[in-house]
């Protein structure tokens, strides 16, 4: 028993300290949105996806620029036996004991117009026989101009020049959309907590009213003004109000944890959301919203990219029907036992090769791949047409929902005020015995439902508005486009 008293005393001391350690903080919807965009996990994911797309685009751009490459073998030591064939046809083995060095310095440039590659190369080879009486030898190619050019194959570089800018534009639009989606999730979590807070306040008030009415009913019962059934009904209402208070407290803690985790706020902060007001905005027009969405949404870029990729697959399959590659090399070469002399008395060094690969009999395999690529392209185009229809329909329904939501919000706001006043009047009327407990309970339920309906309609107003922003990347209140400094964002 003594141990229990000690534990109760510790709890009495520690509990106020724990509660005081938590810092209560009022937070507006705009503040929550700004925090989510800056430090939520979803915002970090969107940023990393943008950076990935940026570096992929930079890699593509680098393919169009000249490259300087140094390749070499430093050194190549060979001490082994190799077979050789004598003049009489017999074989023997000879011992190798050499040290070799090779190096190539080249400037390479992809030719996007033709899909070929042009290289300016300079190389130097050195070999020395090790051991007694070993010789050394140098061979140089001071300058060589090389061209590698596919004749009939697909021009990958040209296709990438068409596809990659569209892909990056899609990624940039998707980043802004993802930012707006972070806002939409913030709105959801914010209003969930706001509704839980309102429900807790309502539950506390309902419990206070229920306890007070029960005390009044006890006095009335003693005077015979109400029946035993009505007294029991009020006692039951008081118990239900107490149970509802416990449930709403638990729900508030859960919604608090959810919003704090999303915003990246410490668990020592108690967030107190402020009821936002609906901002007067223009009535949305379907055609205007649709045009903005088709112009700026990543969906438009996504359609263009998929069309190009489908065409690219067809072009690749057609290019594989036959293969003709041209290799040409023009330059000078020299060789000598001494290094300075290797660059004197240079000789022509010219190579021209034309490689051909044309199937004579492949049982229609390559042409079948062309037909498969065309069929896949038709499938992609059919899916795109259906997606466009669905996209237009979603835009139409969203505009209708938003325009209707403003009216629904005004109705809910007025109904909330009326229900609050009716409940207050019902309590006063019950105290003078003009209405029974059923009418009082009905007024209370109507009051609670009207308050929840008001907050719910306010939530949908903001949610629909930011959903339209996320699809159009346009702020219709300020009539400005949603932009981002991508260079600054990438440097973060």
UniProtKB/TrEMBL annotation:
One of its GO terms (molecular function) is efflux transmembrane transporter activity. InterPro entries: OMP_efflux, TolC-like. The keyword Iron-sulfur does not apply. This is Uncharacterized protein. SUPFAM superfamilies: Outer membrane efflux proteins (OEP) (SSF56954). Belongs to the outer membrane factor (OMF) (TC 1.B.17) family. It comes from Bacteroides caecimuris. Coiled coil: none annotated. GO terms for cellular component: cell outer membrane; efflux pump complex. Keywords: Cell outer membrane, Membrane, Transmembrane, Transmembrane beta strand, Transport. It holds the Pfam family OEP. Its main location: membrane.
